[in-house]
Design brief:
single chain, alpha/beta, eight-stranded mixed beta sheet, RibonucZ/Hydroxyglut_hydro, Beta-lactamase domain protein, WalJ/YycJ-like, Metallo-B-lactamas
């Protein structure tokens, strides 16, 4: 199993997961043209993607859906709430209703949706397991707090893509108006660096090979701050894997199957 981050942050999100000949895309928050550029840069034909999995309906996760689905005929898998929220973006698409806690299969991948705490209709994260190899990857972003459901879902994964959206001090002292600070830092907002560190501690086991920090705020965080915050946590453990930060404006990967931290392509 391999994973690429095609870009992550408030301006767009997309994650490619591959196992054997099976490829799925988690979210499509860029233009169809930009998605095509980034997929092509890593040698992936967009038409070879077999399914689009949506975490929720916010624009930085669905903005390419309408054109991408029309162009490449991707089947869309999403909760009923997300499908309603995406509305006309899914007109003419082949849609499949999924539910938290109910696994489904796409090719060699067994996908397990789990609920997240975010201000969307019915948001989820995903754990993808290779039926052939047993390798497991979790994608968990856009959550204001870590619930027992999340903790249980992301146990014993090999690759963990984890939101590390903001530094609490930077958010508090930053330029956002009070209502937006309250939203970002609330239980249905985004995960802080501190909370990401706490969840990573809960996930540590000898098989965890890679942690990828995702959905960083460009205003209330930085790659260096997020990386150092997580490193402080990991230094107190026996973690021997890799730590990477996903950029907003580039592709990073592949992660998994011994691929290490991967390389980065900058594609503005």
């Amino acid at each position: 199993m391999r994973l690429w981050m095609l870009g992550s942050g408030s301006k767009g999100n997309a994650v490619l997961v591959e196992s054997g000949d099976t490829r799925v895309l988690v979210d499509a928050g860029f233009s169809a043209r930009r998605l095509a550029e980034r997929l092509t840069a890593i040698g992936i034909a967009p038409a070879s993607v077999q399914a689009l999995l949506l975490t929720h309906e916010h624009s930085d996760h669905v903005s390419a859906v309408q054109r991408a689905v029309k162009r490449w005929k991707w089947p869309v898998h999403a909760t009923e709430g997300t499908l309603r929220g995406a509305g006309e973006l899914l007109e003419g698409a082949s849609t499949h209703v999924i539910a938290r806690g109910v696994p489904f299969t796409v090719g060699d991948l067994r996908i397990e949706p789990f609920g997240t705490s975010h201000d969307a209709a019915d948001p989820v994260g995903f754990v993808a397991t290779s039926v052939c190899s047993g390798a497991r990857t979790a994608v968990v972003t856009d959550l204001g707090c870590v619930t027992d459901e999340v903790r249980t879902a992301v146990q014993r994964v090999d690759v963990l893509v984890l939101e590390s959206n903001h530094d609490e001090g930077l958010l508090e002292s930053g330029p956002y108006p009070w209502h937006l600070k309250r939203r970002v830092g609330g239980k249905h907002g985004h995960l802080s660096n501190r909370a990401a560190g706490e969840l990573s501690m809960h996930c540590l086991h000898k098989g965890l090979k890679q942690i990828v920090l995702a959905h960083l705020s460009e205003t209330n965080n930085s790659p260096a701050v997020a990386h150092e915050s997580m490193q402080r946590v990991l230094r107190r453990t026996r973690y021997k894997g890799e730590l990477a930060v996903a950029p907003q404006h580039g592709v990073v990967g592949p992660f998994g199957d011994g691929g290490g931290p991967g390389g980065q392509l900058t594609l503005f």
